[in-house]
Amino acid sequence: xTANPYPLGLRLAxxxxxVVGGGxxxxxxxxxxxxxxADVLLVAPEISPALRAHADAGRLRWLPRRFTxxxxxxxWLVHVAVDDPAAAASVxxxxxxxRIFCVRADDRQAASAWTPAVTxxxxxxxxxxxxxxxxxxxxxxxxxxxxxxxRKGPLLTDSVEEGPPLNPSAGGNPSAGGNPSAGGNPSAGGNPSAGGxxxxxxxxxxxxxxxxxELITVKGWRLITEADVVxxxxxxxxxxxxxxxxxxxxxxxxxxxxxxxxxxxxxxxILVDRAQAGxxxxxxxxxxxxVFGRGGExxxxxxxxxIPVTVVPGVTSSVAAPSAxxIPVTHRAVAHEFTxxxxxxxxxxxxxxxxxxxxxxxxxxxxxxxxxxNLPAITATLLEHGRPADTPAAVVQEAxxxxxxxxxxxxxxxxxxxxxxxxxxxAVVVVGDVVAALNPA
Length: 441
Ligand code: SAH
What we know:
This protein is an alpha/beta fold.
């Protein structure tokens, strides 16, 4: 029977932590120590490639030898991650003599400190001790993680996010956006320096990924569950919108009337308005916000109005659509480059910014977005400027969704094959030897 452990959050920034051992356990432990800013000293004759990478990058100091007692000089904490019980015991004996807490991977009962199972949500860290049973701790941790991931609300929001400085005049109604608890909570996304009462909102430009709702990033997903307003594109996976809290204002950007440029102005206006009223506005865009997504224009519009913006990258269809069809955009000894272009402007149009003649000279992978309508003209231009007609080509429609369709062909035939198969947008065209790299014809 052991007494209960006493939980603590150690603030390790700049403090020496000694890790003895360089194998799998040390490899798992070191990243959290580095994340906490610890001054990590690693003592082990041999270390894993991942640990070596940390050492090479100067993130920790490595002594390539066995442990000696002096290694604990100046240490606040020791992690013993060696298999040999005698070696581990000798480290913990020295640590005990010097009153330094010692975590032991080989023998929890002999350790003076235990590492909890951890889950992190924005600024919140949950640490679970399982009464000496690490599997129990992990089970409880997993349950809490699931609970917190499903939580809709501002509790887990970062209090400080990157972005341009706030415009002090931009503060509005502190409780706008249907988020009554946020008004009294200065850490819920507001700006503490804005006087406490003023609660300026912010905008997150979030990449939703190519179609499969599971292909959004963890950060993007968290922001969706916290949003007061979501402005979504046509290409955003509908299932993601199921995650929204009740009471969230959902703006369907594809339903905004007017032509494309007026519609973009209208979207920018909605982002700025709602954020100025104090809302957390998530602008959810298909793929990555900056790949043919007009994310830059929205960032500039917000910056001009002094609204802080967080950009959350997404998995872009230009890489994911080929990948979902079994086509790697690069492959050793096959392609050392991939080029992504839009095909929405015809190659012979005066407004085209793409040098199709130069692209025809490349031997690597060419990925064309928004290219279905102009595919006959695009392939003809590439052929005319020298790309061989037998170059493998493929078109992937609605990649990573249940409706995905793939047509495999050659540069000479692909336009006809796509028309015959009746493929429709959204679709990605891939040209290059990589198309056949994993699927020889
Ligand atoms: N920002 C997006 C691209 C927007 S442009 C991204 O990074 O993916 C819209 C074009 O993207 C579509 O015309 C199509 O060419 C491509 N696209 C987006 N999603 C797609 C999908 N699931 N399958 C195939 N192509 C897709």
